[in-house]
Amino acid sequence: MSIQILFSFLFLLVASSSYASVQDFCVADLSQSDTPSGFPCKDVKKVSVSDFVYSGLAAAGNTSNLIKAAVTPAFTAQFPGVNGLGISTARLDLAVGGVIPMHTHPGGSELLVVIEGTICAGFISSANTVYFKTLKKGDIMLFPQGLLHFQINSGKGAALAIVSFSSPVPGLQITDFALFANDLPTEIVAATTFLDPATIKKLKGVLGGTN
Ligand SMILES: *[C@@H]1O[C@H](CO)[C@@H](O)[C@H](O)[C@H]1NC(C)=O
Question: What sequence ranges are listed for the domain Cupin type-1 (predicted)?
């Protein structure tokens, strides 16, 4: 009888640990559609170490653009291993004078680590209190989920930071692009922002907006 109990116990142990192993990860099957709880899992038999390693952050992003900066993401789309794990990362390159304009990540909080250079970074709380500071190499700063924030290269050389997010799909919405890079009519932008229409037209021209 006790042998039977022992066997039942061992069976339960083996059954539960093999159940646990299929729950360890859920590498995104990018051939399927995203869902509110993430992508469906890739067949475990097809998962390899390359699903958990990403080399796309090794190279600097191209900063020859209006903002003189580049965000190179390692979100689910680029790094399917993060699917379902509540985590992701990205590389920020800021040339001299570069800026990541005021933006939010609706899906996750952000932790920034300065690897090189000097970055003035800050966020604005829901109470409209501003928290900003000039960060040096080795400093880290938090940006709580959903809040407007920015990063400016305030040094004399290029700056590099690695950011991590508490979501595999933190999302990115840049306020200036939301306001001036689409076809929302100038009079509506003016009515809702109190900006003068000439300024709005000018910004739409620079950022590719119309109307
Ligand atoms: C960087 O982007 C600019 C503007 O799009 C382009 O002209 C240039 O060739 C790019 N440089 C590299 C190294 O890809």
Answer: 55-201
Each residue's pLDDT tens digit, 89-103: 999 999 999 999 999
Taking a C-beta distance cutoff of 8 angstroms, is the pair 199, 142 a contact? no
User: What residues make up the domain containing 201?
Assistant: 178-207
Annotated binding site for Mn(2+): 103, 105, 110, 149
Same domain, 40 and 134: yes
Tokens 């069976």 sit at which residue?
Answer: 11
Q: Is the C-beta atom of 62 inside 6 A of ligand 1?
A: yes
The CATH number given to whatever domain includes residue 148 is 2.60.120.10
Q: 60 CB less than 6 Å from ligand 1?
A: no
Tell me how far the alpha carbon of residue 64 lies from the centroid of ligand 1, in angstroms.
6
Closest ligand 1 atom to residue 62 Cα is 1
Count of domains for the chain: 2
